[in-house]
Amino acid sequence: MPGRDAAREHAMLAKVLEASLDPPSPDLAELAKELEAEGEGRQLRTEHVERVFMARLASKPLLSDRLAYMVRCWRGCDDVRANSHRHPPEVLEQLPAVLQMIGNYAGLSISCAELFGLEPVPASAAAATLRGMWEKRELPITFFVKIADSMEDGVDEIFGSILAVACSKLKGRHLMDQRTDDLYFIAGACDKKRGGSPKLAQALVALPSFLPAPNPSAVAANPMLAMMSGSAGSRPPQPGRGYQLQTDSFLGWVLAPTCVDTALYKEQSARHIHFQGLARKTQSAVVQTQNLLRSSMSDVLEQAKAVVNPLLRAGEGTRDAVLSWLGTLITGTEARTKSANTLDQGGGPNHFVDSLQNAPMPMQQNLDMRLQMQAMQAQMLGFATPGMALNTLWLLLDLVSPIKLSAVESLDPYYILREGTLHATILGGFSEEARFGDADDVAKVKADAIAADALSSPVKFTTQVFWLAVRAMHVLLVPVLKEDLCFAVGAGYFQSRDPSKMEACLGEHFLHQTILESSAFLQSLATLLNLEIAFCLCAALPHRAAEVVAGKLTSGSVLTSEISPQWQVLPSCILEDLIETLEYFVTIRPPGQPQSELFTHVKPDLLLPLVTFMLGSGGHVKNPNLRGKATTILMTLTKQRDYLHLLETSPILANDIVPGCIRVFTAVEKTKQSYYDIRMQLKYQLRIPIMELMEKVLPIESHQKSLLAFAHSFSDEFLKFLNQLMNDATMQISEGLDTLQEIRRIVREQGEAGLQRPSAEALSADEQNEGGEDVYRRSRADPKEHCKTYMKMGHRTMRTLWSIIKEAPIVIVSKLNVLQQLLHSCLNACLDRLVGPKCLELKMQKGAANDFEEYNFKPKEMIQMVAEMYIYVARSDKDRVQKLIVEDGRSYRPKTFQKAVQVLKREQMIAAQMLQEFESFVQDLNNLSASQEAALANITIPDDFLDPIMSEIMEDPVLLPSSNTIMDRKVIERHIMSNDDDPFNRMPLSVKDLVPQDELRARIQEFCQKHGIVAGG
Question: pTM here?
Fold first, then answer.
C-alpha cells in the first residue's frame, strides 16, 4: 500500500504473530489460500492480523495455550518497541493497532471462546489460568490490563482473584520487607495514567480485603473488654474497626510499615535495631539513623500514594471506597481520644513519669511492658496503633496538599450537618462532638440549611478529604503528640535516675521525631494547618472571608460579638486540636534550639489573627484554658522575626491584642488548681504568657492607644482585669515571701534535711493508701521550687501592673474601689513587707550567703516599681491618692514610707526626678496622716458612719437590698468585682442594685467637716 514498506511490515508481523504463510503452518493453511484467492499474496499486513488470530486461537482448545500465545505476541511487540531503531516509522505506526487487537482477542479467547469454535470457559477456570500465569511471572502487567479493558463482563470475578492474591502477599509488610513488587503490580494495574485500567481499580475496591465486613464477635467475647467497661457482668463495649483495617485490609497492609509501634515488631522494631545502647551513640550517629528511617518512611508514603491516587481518579465508586476506608479507620480509632487509652492516661507528662517511677505494679514501671499492654488494648478495643495512625494521617495530609488557600471558601462548614451513609462514615464521631454553638442554635442552623437546600447539593471531594484530615488530627495525631511529649520528658527525667528507662523513653522519642520532624511531613502538616486556620477565620468572620483567602486581612478588627451560623456548627475540638498541635511543636524543642520547621511554613498573617480572635472572643471560644494556651503559643512565636514584625506593624493586632489579653486574663480566673502542687493555681501559669505579651506590646504606641481605648470603652472589663491582676500580685508576692520565711525557719531548726518530702514512716494514716504510699506525693511541692515559682510570678505580675499604670493611671484613679484596692491591698501591703517592720524577717542570718537571687527575689526592683506606681497615680489625683493611703489602717505607716525614700536614695534605684517626686509625695502624705491623727484623737465616730467590714468612715454609703445592710460604695463594689453577691447572705448582687443613702452621706460629710477629718473620696 502507498506509504508502507510491505516487506518490512510483513517481517515485523511474522515475528510478532509467530506466523508464516510461505509455507503456511497447518493452522494458517486455509488463511493462506484465502489471501491468494483475494490477490493478497503471501505477505502479512496489519489488516490480516485479526484473521491470523482467528485461525491460530481456533487451533488451541486450552485457554492456557491461547493466552500463552497471546503473551508471546505481546512481548514480540515490546521487543519491536525496544528495538525501534531497526524499524522504519511507517512500520512502527502499525504497532498500536496490533497491540489493541492482541488485547481484544485475548479477552475474546476468555469471554467468548465459542467465537473460535471452542467450549465456553467458566469464569473460575479463567481466573485460575490467569492466576497461575501471574504466579509464574508469565503475565506482563500491561497485557493483564489490556485484557481487562477489553472485557465487558466478568472483570471482578476473573481478575479480582489475582488482585486478591497480590493483596494478600502484602500482609505482614514492614520496613525491612516492603514487598514492593506486589504493591507496584497492583498500583500499575489500577493507574490509568500509567496504562492501568479503571475496571481493575473497581475490581480492587470490590474485594473483601479492601473494606472487610465488621467482625466484632471474637473480640466482643473477650472477658477483658467486659472488665474494661466496668463490672464483669456489664455488656462489653463494641470494639472499633481501626485495628481490623490495620491488620486485615489491603490499605492497612500498604500503610503498615513504620518505625514506631515497637510493641508490634519487637526484635524487628526500629528501636531494637537502631537505638539500643543510646548512651554510647553520638548525636551525629542518631541523626544519620533518623535520616535513614525518614527515607524509608517517605518510601512507604510514596507507595501508599501510588495505590490510593489511582483509585481516587478511577471514578466515583473507587473514590468513595477510599474515603470510606479512611473514615472507618478514623472512627475505629476514636477510642484513642479517651484518656484511658493513652500512655499518660490523660494526666500529661508529669503523671506519665510519676507512674513509670512509682506505679504499684512492676510491669507499669517498664515502658516496653506498657507499650505491649497498649498494643493488646488496641486489639481489644479496635483502635489503630500509633504507627498506623501517623501513616494514615500523613497520607491524608498529602491528599489535602493540592487544596489552595484561595479555595478555602469552597470548603463547606455545613458538611458537618450532612446525613447519609458516606457522609456518616467520613464524619464519624465528629457529629457527636460539642459545637461552638449551643444545641438549640445548631438545630436552628441545620433547619435553616435544609430549608435553603444547602445540604442536598453535591459535595466536592476537597470538602470531604478536608473534613477527614481535620478528624484525623483529632483522632490520629493529637494522642501521638501527647505520648511523644511524655517520652521526651521521661528521657530527661530519668537521665540521671534510671539509664534503662531513659534509653527506652529516648529511643521512642527519637523514633517519633523521625516522622514528626521530617521536612516532608511538616510541610504537609503546615498546609493543613493553614487551611484549617483560614477555614476557622472564614467561619467566624464570613463577611471578611474574601480578605482571609486573599491574604488581605490587614485592617480593622477580628473581635466580634456576632456569632455566625457557620461558626456555631463547627466542633469545638477543631481549635483544641489546632492549639494542641502547635503547643506540641513549641514545647518539644529543647531550650536554646530554634523553633520547629513547622513554623516556617505556617502563615503568620493567618495564625496571629486567629489566635488574637481566640483571645478576645469569649463568646465564640468558651474554653479559658484553651485561650490561655493560645497566648503561650503567640508569645513563643514572637521570638521569630516574621511573627514579631507582624505583631509590631499589623493594624489588626494593634487594635485587638491588648483587649484580647485582658479578656483572656479574666477568663482563666476559674481554672482548676494544679494537680502537681495543691497550692499552685493553674490560672497563674496561664497568665504568665499573657502578661509577657502585654509587656512586649505596650511600649509600642499603637498598642498603647488600644489599651487606653479599651479602658474607656469597656471600663467594667478593664477594671475587673485590674482587680484580678492586683489580687494575683498580692497573693503571689505574699506566698513567695511566706515560703521563703518558712524555708529559713525550717533550715534554721532542722537543717536542709527538713526540706525533703516526708518518708513513708512520717506520714499520718490518712495520707497513705492501702499499700502505705503517700497519696499526696504528686501534690507535695518542693518548698524551694515553690518559692522560686511564686517569686518569679509575683515579679512578673507586678511588672505588668506597673506597665499598665504607667500608660493608663487616670482610668484607675477614676474608680475609687479600684484605686483603694491598688493602694491598700497591693502597693501599701507590698511596701510594708519590703521595708516595714516585717522586712527583718527576710534578712539572712549573720554569715550566711545572700540567697535572694537563688529564689528569684528582687527586692530593689520591687521597691522601685512600687514607688513609681505611687507617682503615676498621684500625678492624676494626688489628693485622692493620699487620702486613701492614710485611711489604710492595716499597712500604712509613716515610718515605712520614709524608710522607702531612704532606701531609694541609698541604692540610687530610680531616676533623680522620680525620686524627688516620691520624696515630696511621702512628705505631704505623712503630713496629712499627722493632721488626720490629730483630728481623730479626741472624738468618737458614730457606728453607723463606719463601714461594717473595713471599720472606716464611709464616703458614699449604699444599701444592700437583700440583707438590708449599709456599706461604703467603694468597698462593696470592690467585693462585687470578684464575687457578684451580697457578702452577708450570698444572694446575687450587682452594682446597679445598690441604693444610695443620701441622707446618711450628708450627715457623714457634715461630721467630717466639723471635726476636720479628710475622707478618701
Answer: 0.84
